[in-house]
Specification:
Blueprint: E1 5-11, H1 20-33, E2 37-38, E3 61-69, E4 71-73, H2 80-85, E5 92-99, E6 109-117, H3 126-134, E7 140-144, E8 152-156, E9 161-168, E10 172-180, H4 188-198, E11 206-215
Parallel strand pairs: 3-11
Antiparallel strand pairs: 1-3, 1-5, 2-4, 6-10, 6-11, 7-8, 9-10
Protein name: Radical SAM-linked protein
Pfam family, one: DUF2344
Length: about 220
């Protein structure tokens, strides 16, 4: 998309349960309600053209979502956040609007905070067990794949994890992960699945996923 613009927005609270397609529709309607003219698709039933380069899984919260569009008129970039926030639903908030600087292919890593929660307190030794698991030279898991004839493929998680820290607290263990965003990307749910399989004593009762930042190959913010 030529001369593309980007919104950075957060998706928290009940809004984290909005699906990707519904989120796209929400923004299309919001641009219309805010009186902001953007490029539309061509054809019999044109609609506002918006794109989210890295869709977020349902149930995940985020403070760094990015939406691409092309501003045609009706507002300056600096006006867009306030006007969009006035019409967007609770839990979705535009932080800034800016000219796209880096191409989508430069989006290399995602920083996630994954919080493992335990009703009866974090098990003794769980923090160390998880740290040792993620420090292995190889950690192969099975994931579903529509492209494979069997419907499943093997994935080695270790090459897809660039950096990680593990911090244990009384009732939680927090994983600060920087993982591959695309080509191939890594869903942090696979890391939790690996913990459940290889460290059953560290299996959490609940898990919260929060996307903290999107980064380029040099671990700098992707914008």
């Amino acid at each position: 998309m030529r001369n593309s613009n980007r919104l950075r927005f957060s998706k928290t609270g009940r809004a984290k349960y909005i699906s990707h397609l519904d989120l796209m529709r929400t923004f299309q309607r919001a641009f219309l309600r805010a009186g902001i003219e953007i490029t539309h698709t061509e054809g019999f039933n044109p609609h506002a053209f918006v794109s989210i380069p890295l869709p977020l899984s349902v149930g995940f919260a985020s403070q760094c979502e990015v939406l691409e569009f092309e501003l045609r008129g009706g507002a300056e970039l600096s006006e867009v956040p306030e006007r969009m926030n006035a019409v967007l639903p609770e839990g979705i908030m535009v932080q800034k609007c800016y000219e796209a600087a880096k191409p989508v292919k430069a989006l290399t890593y995602v920083n996630y905070i994954v919080t493992l929660e335990y009703e009866n307190g974090a098990p003794f030794g769980a923090e160390t067990a998880i740290r040792d698991l993620l420090s292995r030279e190889s950690l192969v898991v099975i994931k579903k794949s529509k492209k494979a004839k069997s419907g499943q493929v093997e994935v080695d998680l270790i090459p897809l994890i660039a950096k990680f820290t593990v911090e244990g607290r009384r009732d939680t263990i927090a994983l600060d992960l920087i993982i591959r965003a695309q080509n191939p990307g890594l869903n942090p749910e696979l890391i939790v699945s690996a913990i459940r399989e290889h460290c059953p004593e560290a299996s959490p009762d609940y898990v919260a996923f929060h996307r903290k930042d999107v980064l380029d190959a040099q671990f700098q913010p992707w914008e």
